[in-house]
Every structure is written in structure tokens, then in C-alpha cells.
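The protein record quoted in full:

***
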Amino acid sequence: MMDRLKRTQEVACQQVLVEDNSVFSIQWSLFPDSLAAGMTPELLAQRYLEYIRSCTWSIIRPTLCENGLEFRLLNSRLSLITFLPSAREEGALLFRICGGLLVQPRQCHRGELRFDVTAVAEGTRVSLQLSDYCPLLLGSSTPTLFRHWLYRLTQAAIHQLVTVRFLVLLYRDLAGLTSPVKVVNVRVREGRPI
């Protein structure tokens, strides 16, 4: 088992603007079954939300409330992204976007954050997916080249960095050792890279 854990951890990534100019972003990593034993989408989501709070030094505070989940700014009631209460779908845990400062006002009813833990032939695939998200930085469904690059160099880059780092740290925490990491670009959906 030790040899299997020492191999390079690969984190697969794709971030694109799909045809309607909403964001599709997915990151996943394969974990040996022995490491992922007991991992559920609920546990994955819980660990991710704790990680968001710690990696942002509590600037972003994921807060579960009666109406769902809010990514609040500091100790205020300002929500950067607001989600409906979690729902189970096809074995995954979903948080559907319903508002927030970082969401285009006319697109608050779109988008979801999905946590998935799936058994595959090679082990257990642990994935996080953001889809149909319409970020405020893009401005509209027809973003200018400037807004596209602004989003790409800021919010998209931060999201990918945070999510990849989360998967790496989760693997290290479960394995109890450090493995080399390789980020691999994958193609799940058609779209313009961001």
C-alpha cells in the first residue's frame, strides 16, 4: 500500500466558459480506496467549507443558515455567493446558487456547486464541480474581452488554485504523507478556456 501512496497525485482540471458564457469548472483527484474509505459527499463538502474559511484567514466565512449556505464576507451579513439548502442528486451533494454579490443579478437562479465521491476502476474519484455559474465580473452573457480576462486572471485563477490545493491537502491529510502533485488539464465540456 505504501508504494501506491507514494505515486504522484494527479489533479484533473478544466475551467471554461460554455456557449451561454456561464462558467463550468471541475477539479478531481483519484484516491486509493483505502484513503477514501468513509468519504462521503457530505464529508467532502464539510471539509471544503472548513478549508475555505481557513485558507482565506476567515475573510470568507461559509455559513450554514436556515435558508441554505452563504459565503459571507468577514463577520458581516454580506454574502459573496448564496446557495439554497443542499440536495442529493445521483449520489452527489449539490448546493444551487440563488444569489450573492459575485453573481450577475439577472442570473441568480442559475448555477450549482457539486461535491462527488465516486468509485471507479482505479480507486475513488473525489471531485468538485461548479457549473452554470454567471459571475458578476463577466458583466453579462456577452462579456467583453476585458471582462473575460479580468475574470480569468482573478476569480477563476483563485477558484482553481484553492480547489486544487484543497484536493492536494485532503490527500496528504488522509495519507499522512506528502506525494508529488501533477495538475492535468482535461476536457469534460466544450468551451473557451478561462
